[in-house]
Amino acid sequence: MSESDHRWMQRALELAAHAESIGEVPVGAVIVLDDKIIGEGWNQPISSHDPTAHAEIIALRQACSHMGNYRLPEAQIFITLEPCIMCAGALIHARVARCVFAAEESKTGAAGSNIDAFSIANINHRVQCESGLLRDESSQLIKYFFKSRR
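RESULT FIELD:
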């Protein structure tokens, strides 16, 4: 992965840390087009009382609003945790070109860990997906968050 991939994932980790600081599960997402951020978000379902307020959805809404289009065919998303089925579906519908996530999520991951929404046979768009970039840093945030809640 490139130097810019590391920079964008580092930004996603900063957003995840912000989520953790306000009591949300620490997940951050950054959407990039032409090496510029067009959308970013952090988990907000607890504070917003909205089960769809995942980091990816917040970032997608911001990016689509910024672009004036619900499709982002050249965009890349950097996420600190493997997307769930809802978020993977939203990335497919938005026609995001590439998804890079840090840590796998064995219970709800929909990019290969539990299921792989990106490789369903009849889906009309393929999101290129890569994982593992800054995995340890993201995993540490998640583990610390849940350990401190027990």
